[in-house]
Specification:
- Two copies of one chain form a homodimer.
- Chain A is of the alpha/beta class and 484 residues long.
- Chain A has a domain of 252 residues: Alpha/Beta hydrolase fold, catalytic domain (Rossmann fold, 3-Layer(aba) Sandwich).
- Helix content of chain A is 39%, strand content 10%.
- Chain A has 16 helices and ten strands.
- In chain A, helix 6 runs antiparallel to helix 10.
C-alpha cells in the first residue's frame, strides 16, 4: 500500500504536469490530428459544459465535479414504467441480503382472472424493462417485433411481464441506487449479485402481483440464463422454459470477452474505483467496452457481406491519388464499431455493466458449482448415471449422448430440477459468444437429466448472437410453436 | 478546435482536482480494493522510481518526465543482431519516401557460394529478428524449434535471414526511431506503412548482401502476408512461397479485432497522440490491447480444456463458506489474460503496434485494391475469367471453384504475378483471426490465377492462430516437405 500511495501522489503531480506540458506544446508544435481520440476529450468537454450551464457561475470553480452532469440513465422517468418496492430483505447468493429493493417492470396483454396466462420475459445484459411500447411509453422496445397481438409473445393470449434486473440502472436497485444505510450511491460497495438473485427479485414481484405460476419463463442471451434459473429455483411455479442463445454455464471464452470489456472500463480514470456518481462517468471506458462487445454480438460473415473492405468516403480525396490511410478509422467496419460505442457510452451505468457482466460469468448450473455456492446441499444431489438403463427413460428420438463428458454429467445433475419442465433451447451457429456447442450441451444435459420435452433448434444465418433481436421469422416462429 | 482547447484546459484543471480529491478521500473513506486496477498505478510508480534513481535529485522535480524511463525495446543491444543502414530513400505505398532507413537482421546457416540457398523468413506483428538463438544472442528465439540442423528450416541446407520489419522497434526504422530531419523521435509523424514497404526494405538488404534470388520466402501470420508480397513484387526473385496462417486480404472481422486493440491503446492518456518517448509509455493501454489480442490468438476449445471454469486459489478461503467473487479476476482464464497483458506491456513500442497493425488491415491483393493504391496500373491487369476453358489449365486434382464470388475473381486477378511460384498455404480450423475460410480463399485464388503448384493443408487442433508457434510436428513437417 505504501507503494501505491507513493504512486498516487506522483500521479497527481505528474498528471498535472504532463497535461500542462502537452497543452503548451500542442500550441507551438504541429502534430497529426486524431479525431477518434480527440472525440473522448470533446465528449468530456460537452458533458462538463452541460453541467456548467446548470450551475451558478460562482460555484463552478469548486463544485463542478461534485455536482456533475447526469447521463440519461440517471434521469429515469418513473412514470414510464412501474416500480415495485419491497421493504423486506432480498437473499443473495454471494453476500449478505439487500435490506430492501426496487424492481422496475412493464406489462403487456391482460392478466386472466385465474392468473394462469403469465409469461415472465427476462432481458439481456443492458436492456431495460421496456421490451415493447406501452401506453405509458410509446417508444419502441428492444423486442418490439416479438410482442403484440398475433406475435411470438401474443398479447391476445398472454400477460407478459418484463423487469429491469437487480444490478441494472433502469429503475431496479443497482450500484447507481442510493444505499438506504448510508444515503449515498452504492457504487462498488454494492454486493456481487448472481443470476439467481435477479430471479429471486422477480419472483418477489410475482408474489406481490398474486401470480403463483408462470405459463412460461422466456429469455434471450442472459435472459436465457434467468429463464433456466427461474425453473431451477421454482420448478413448481414455471410451466415452460424458453432459452434463446443462452447457456447453462458460461464458457471460458465468453468470460474472456467480458473480462476484456470490464478491464478497459475499470482502467478509465473516470471510473475511479466505481465512485464516479458525483463526477463524470467513465464514458471513454464505456465506449471502448462497447466496441469489444459489438465484436462478440455479430459475426465475421455478416461483416463480410455488409461492409467487406469498404472504406469510409473522404470528401477531399482526388481520384488520381492513392487514398492516404489514417491511424483512426478508415474501414466501414471501424466506423461501425466507433459509432456503436459512441451511441452506448452514456446510455448505461458502468458499474451496472461490470456487476451484471460478472453475474453472467458466474452462472453455472453444474452440480459441483451449485454445491460449492451452497445453492444445492451436497446430500440433495441426484446421481446421473451414464448407464444404458438410465437412458431408456429419455426421449427415443433424441437420446442423450452415449459417452458424455464428465462436465456434462455434472451439468445434468445440476439441472435435475428442470427434468419435468418442457424447455425450448434455440441457438445460432454463427454466435461466437453463446456458441452452438453450448446450446447442444444444454439440450444434452436436460435430456440426460430425464427431460423428455426438450425442443432443440439451431439457426443458420450470419447475424451471430444478435439473431434473437433480428430474426422474427425463425426465432419468433419457434417460440410461438413451442408456447402454443 | 476551440471546443477541444476548452476541453483540454478543463482536463488539466479537473484532472488535477479529481486526482487530488480522490487521493484525499481515499484516506478517510473505506472502499473496496481492486488489485487489478491498482496494478496500473503500481507499474507507473515503479517506472517512475526507476527514473528517479538514475537522475540527480535536484533534477527530479522538473525533468522526471522529459528524461523518462526507458522500456526494454528502447535499450536495444545492437551487438546481438546486424543492422544494415541504407542511406538512400525507401519508396512507400502511401506516403513520401523515407529518406534513409535501417534494417535489423539475423542469419542462421551458411550462404552457399552461388547464393542459391537463401530463405527469407518474415515475422508476425510484434516479433524481432531473433527467430532462433545465434552466436551473438543465445536467448531462445520466437521460432526456436523450427530453425536448426534437421529442423523445418534446416540450417544444414539453407541460409536463413530474418529481419525486424520497417515500423518495428527492434533495430529497424520505426516510429520510435530518430527522424534525421528533426533530430527527434518520429512518433506519429512516421508515415503510414504497408506490407509491401516492409518487403521493399527487405529486398534492399538482400541487394546489399548480393542475394539475387530467394530459394523461398517463408512467413506465418503477418509473415504470410509479407511472403505473398515478396513474390508479388519480385516474382523472378522468389523460388517458393510459404504462407502459414496468413491471408491475401484482411477480413473485416480481423480489422475489427485490431481496431479494438488500437482504440484502447490510443485512449491511454500516456499515449499522448504518439508523443510519449520523453515520458512514460502507455503501459496500461498496451496491457489492455494485449489482453484483447490474446483472445484472438488462441481458441475457446483450448481454454475449455486448459482452464475450464477453474478459479484462482484464495488462501484465506474457508471450505465451509461459498467463495466470495470479486470484480477483479476470479477465473483462471482471467488471470491468464491479465498475465499475458502484463508480460507484454513494456516489451513492445505502442506506436509500432499501431502502425504495423494498420499495415495488416490495409493488406489486400485484390486487383481493384492494388489498382486503387497505384501498386498495379489499370492497364496491366489480366482478366481472370471464370469460364470452363480457362479452368482446364489448372491442377486437375484441385480445380478452382466452379462459381467463384466476384471478390475471388478480383483476388485471382491481383494474384496473377504469383501464378508461377510454387506456394504452400497452411491454415488452422480453430483460428479466429486468420480463419480457415481465408486460407481456402487464398488457395482458390492462386489456382484461379493459374498456379498449378499450390499445396494446401488445414490443421485441426485447439491452438487457434498460435498453432504456428506450437505445432512443430504438423506445421514443421508441411514446411519441410514443401521445401525439399
Amino acid at each position: 500500500m505504501s507503494l501505491l500511495k507513493f504512486s498516487r501522489e506522483n500521479l497527481i503531480r505528474s498528471s498535472f504536469r504532463r497535461f500542462a506540458r502537452s497543452y503548451s506544446r500542442s500550441a507551438i508544435t504541429k502534430r497529426p490530428h486524431f479525431p477518434c481520440v480527440e472525440a473522448h476529450a470533446v465528449r468530456e468537454s460537452q458533458l462538463r459544459q452541460t453541467t456548467f450551464s446548470s450551475i451558478p457561475s460562482s460555484a463552478q470553480d469548486t463544485d463542478d465535479l461534485e455536482s456533475g452532469p447526469e447521463p440519461p440513465y440517471a434521469r429515469p422517468n418513473p412514470k414510464s414504467y412501474h416500480v415495485y418496492h419491497d421493504p423486506a430483505p432480498l437473499e443473495l447468493t454471494y453476500a449478505s441480503p439487500l435490506l430492501s429493493f426496487d424492481v422496475a417492470y412493464e406489462t403487456w396483454g391482460t392478466l386472466s382472472s385465474s392468473k394462469d396466462n403469465v409469461i415472465l420475459l427476462h432481458t439481456g445484459l443492458s436492456a431495460s424493462s421496456h421490451a415493447a411500447s406501452t401506453a405509458l411509453n410509446s417508444a419502441p422496445g428492444w423486442w418490439e417485433k416479438f410482442i403484440g397481438p398475433g406475435k411470438a409473445l401474443d398479447t391476445n393470449q398472454y400477460f407478459i411481464v418484463c423487469t429491469n434486473v437487480i444490478g441494472g440502472c433502469y429503475g431496479s436497485t443497482g450500484p447507481s441506487s442510493i444505499d438506504p444505510t448510508t444515503g449515498t450511491h452504492y457504487a462498488t460497495n454494492f454486493p456481487i449479485i448472481s443470476i439467481f438473485d435477479m430471479v429471486r427479485a422477480q419472483f418477489r414481484l410475482l408474489d406481490h402481483l398474486g401470480i403463483d405460476k408462470l405459463y412460461a419463463s422466456v429469455g434471450c442471451s442472459m435472459g436465457g440464463m434467468q429463464s433456466l434459473a427461474a425453473g431451477w429455483l421454482h420448478p413448481e411455479r414455471v410451466g415452460k422454459i424458453v432459452s434463446i442463445s443462452g447457456t447453462a454455464r458460461s464458457s471460458p471464452s465468453a468470460v474472456a470477452m467480458r473480462y476484456a470489456q470490464r478491464s478497459v472500463l475499470m482502467a478509465d480514470p473516470n471510473w475511479n474505483y466505481g465512485f464516479y456518481y458525483n463526477g463524470l462517468p467513465p464514458h471513454t471506458g464505456m465506449k471502448l467496452a462497447r466496441q469489444i462487445a459489438t465484436i462478440t454480438y455479430r459475426s465475421g460473415p455478416e461483416w463480410d457481406l455488409r461492409f467487406g473492405r469498404q472504406m469510409r468516403p473522404i470528401l477531399e480525396q482526388s481520384p488520381d491519388m492513392p487514398r492516404t490511410p489514417a491511424l483512426c478509422p478508415d474501414f466501414l467496419i471501424e466506423t461501425y464499431l466507433d459509432h456503436q460505442g459512441e451511441q452506448f457510452c452514456l446510455k448505461y451505468d458502468a458499474n451496472s455493466l461490470i456487476y451484471i457482466s460478472k453475474a453472467m460469468d458466474l452462472f453455472d448450473l453444474t452440480a459441483s458449482s451449485l454445491t460449492a455456492n451452497h445453492l444445492l446441499s451436497s446430500s440433495s444431489t441426484l446421481s446421473i448415471s451414464a448407464s444404458p438403463s438410465h437412458k431408456t427413460s429419455h426421449s427415443k428420438s433424441h437420446p442423450p449422448p452415449v459417452n458424455p463428458a464428465p462436465h456434462l454429467t455434472d451439468l445434468a445433475e445440476g439441472m435435475q430440477p428442470l427434468a419435468k419442465i418442457p424447455t425450448l433451447v434455440l441457438g445460432v451457429q454463427s454466435d461466437i459468444l453463446f456458441t452452438v456447442e453450448q446450446q447442444r450441451e444444454m439440450a444434452d444435459a436436460l435430456r440426460m437429466a430425464g427431460n423428455e420435452q426438450v425442443s432443440y433448434y439451431e439457426l443458420g444465418g450470419v447475424w451471430g448472437h444478435d439473431t434473437f433481436l433480428l430474426d422474427v421469422l425463425n426465432v419468433g416462429g419457434a417460440i410461438r410453436g413451442f408456447l402454443s
